[in-house]
Amino acid sequence: MDVGRLDQPILRVLAVRDACYVLKQDGVWYFNGYEAPFSLAPLDSSCAIVAASTAAIVNNSIFMLSNQGVVQISTSGVTIQSGNIEPAIMTQALALSNLSTVAFAVANETDRQYVLWLPTGGGDAYATQAYVFHTLLQEWTRWVKPAAAGV
């Protein structure tokens, strides 16, 4: 099944309870079905993942770092969640040359958190800070501590 522009690679495919999402640099696609042929539909062609390892599933939704900031993806569409931290994400993080290789995220279902680890500078070999989003309270917290991986 072809998804989006053929010159753009698929960066992540994540499955939630009743659907799969295909994340590419040219958009987000949604497909579902119990057997072939599956139903494929573009969810948002203007939202592009910028670091493949930042996509994580929390509470049956996908959170990821995109060209629009941190977004939440569900069957109802793409919602920007990083409004409160926009300057840190849009003007600082997205400009870093090492973002796609250093940034990653982990999900904590028990604490209802999406934890996005980012480099602070373009020379960082690992993430040096984390932005933690509490999905129930809809609030961000910043941690200043290094991490190269997370569980």
Structural class: mainly beta
> What's the story with the biggest beta sheet?
4 strands, antiparallel
Please mark out the parts with pLDDT under 50 across 5 or more consecutive residues, or reply none: none
Helix share bin: under 10%
Mean pLDDT: 93
- Give the SSE order as H and E letters: EEEEEEEEHHEEEE
Strand residues, percent: 35-45%
Strand order in the sheet with the most strands: 1-2-3-4
Tell how many strands the DSSP assignment holds.
Answer: 12
From the N-terminal CA to the C-terminal CA, the straight-line distance is: 32 Å
Question: What characteristic shape results from the CA principal axes?
Answer: globular
Helix tally equals 2
**Alpha-carbon Rg, integer:** 15 Å
